[in-house]
Specification:
With 417 residues, this protein is an alpha/beta fold. It has helices at 5-8, 33-44, 110-119, 132-142, 225-238, 300-312, 319-338, 341-351, 356-364, 368-382, 391-394, 396-400, 408-413; strands at residues 24-29, 48-53, 71-73, 92-94, 98-99, 105-107, 123-126, 147-152, 163-173, 182-185, 198-204, 207-217, 246-257, 268-272, 278-284. It is built from 13 helices and 15 strands. The chain crosses the membrane at residues 20-40.
Length: 417
């Protein structure tokens, strides 16, 4: 673990010998995108911030690299985040027809966000959750009156019951790879073999990302790597992407979905075995707190939208609604995982014929009535007996998750395990 000397330096913001009784300190575990967003916004609110990540170097001066690329819907980007996302661009969707969604799409500038955290003066500590008691003990000794918020951004923990979004992508540089950005292309590249997958194309640093994605599945991600790589190569051949193209990078992404250690909208007090022991406010954030969309895999835009409320502690009044919206979209993810390729192609054609408001309510919203209204209105396009919806009648217990045991009790006892 890196030196904790910098922790005590926060008391230098006050006059010598003055006890700081109102200083607010955020201790963040995990420096992926959600942790970086939380750290940056906490500093913007005048909080002292200490961030732990096991991937940091000794005496760190920069954040760890993030292996994946991140996209978000333009409507999710708050004003403060404009400098950390690329300009919005038009996207297309290909289902049984070609469609142009009435919203822009943007890519996260990961390097800019990571650098902003460093520039903001966040104290970076190489460590894990095991080092939290030591950090909190040091904070208490140096700042006896400090109000501490522990923000857990370690990501969701797979437990064998989750769904996965799985993708294999290549960053390509060359004229034939420069095509119109595509949000989803559901046209099959082979006989309609499960699991269904779609093509995703977006501009990134160094070229264009071409990626084949399974939206939701209960299969093991590693079992799909070669299948997705082969489908992507077929896509490239069909699109005429040829010898002028250089492969700059590849990525294999496996996102566990439908999991959370608790709700990002619910803080709770926990007792940490520091020296001396102390009670602190604790909140899971990012995918740890359920901000990964259970039916799309998106999370960065949701974290940007939620972070200021989380830091202000004003989320509890709508926590029940957040829980309900999460559950409704999780039902959607289970339906996606059960659907055949032809069913998904037809279903998403119906989805992208809906109004912009309905699409965004489902893709980005946390209001249960808006999510439920969108799901209900889909019925007008598909009919209630559409194959996508039929499992609600034929397998209701599995789709509604009535056999799944809540994980809340174990997490509440020991959130830092």
């Amino acid at each position: 673990m890196g030196s904790l000397a910098a922790v005590g330096n926060m008391h230098l913001t006050a006059r010598p010998q003055q006890r700081i009784v109102e200083l607010r300190i955020a201790v963040i575990i995990g420096l992926g995108p959600a942790g970086a967003i939380a750290a940056l916004r906490a500093r913007a609110r005048g909080m002292g911030v200490l961030a732990l990540d096991h991937r940091l170097e000794e005496n760190p001066t920069e954040l760890p690299e993030w292996p994946a690329t991140y996209g978000l819907v333009d409507a999710e980007v708050p004003g403060w985040a404009e400098e950390f996302v690329r300009p919005a661009h038009e996207i297309r969707v290909v289902t049984t027809a070609r469609r142009t969604p009435d919203f822009g799409y943007r890519m996260l500038d990961s390097s800019a966000l990571r650098q902003a955290v460093v520039d903001a003066g966040v104290t970076l500590i190489r460590g894990t959750e095991r080092h939290v008691p030591e950090v909190l003990g040091q904070v208490r000794r140096d700042n006896p009156g400090a109000e501490v918020l522990l923000i857990d951004c370690r990501g969701a923990r797979p437990d064998g019951r989750e769904l996965w979004q799985v993708a294999y992508g290549m960053v390509l540089r060359g004229r034939s790879a420069q095509v119109q950005p595509t949000f989803m292309d559901w046209r099959p590249v082979e006989a309609r073999v499960a699991p269904a997958s779609f093509l995703y194309i977006q501009p990134v640093d160094g070229g264009m990302l071409w990626e084949e994605t399974v939206l939701a599945t209960d299969q093991r991600p590693e079992d799909l790597r070669e299948l997705l790589a082969d489908r992507l190569r077929q896509r490239l051949r069909s699109a005429g992407v040829a010898g002028d193209v250089e492969t700059v990078d590849t990525e294999f992404v496996a996102i566990p979905m439908g999991l959370r250690e608790g709700s990002w909208a619910r803080r709770r007090r926990i007792l940490v075995d520091a020296n001396p022991p102390r009670a602190v406010e604790y909140v899971p954030f990012g995918s740890r707190g359920g901000l990964v969309h259970p039916a799309s895999g998106y999370s960065v835009g949701a974290a940007m939208q939620a972070v200021d409320e989380v830091l202000a502690g004003t989320t509890r009044r709508r926590a029940l609604g957040v829980d309900m919206a999460f559950y409704l979209r999780l039902v959607g993810a289970r339906l996606i995982a059960r659907a055949s390729p032809e069913t998904l192609q037809d279903f998403f054609d119906a989805f992208f014929r809906m109004s912009r408001e309905c699409q965004l309510a489902y893709l980005t919203g946390h209001h249960p009535l808006a999510v439920a209204a969108t799901m209900w209105q889909l019925r007008a396009y598909t009919g209630f007996w559409h194959p996508f919806l039929r499992p609600l009648v034929t397998h209701p217990r599995a789709v509604l998750g009535l056999r799944r045991r809540s994980r809340g009790s174990a997490t509440a006892r020991d959130p830092l395990r």
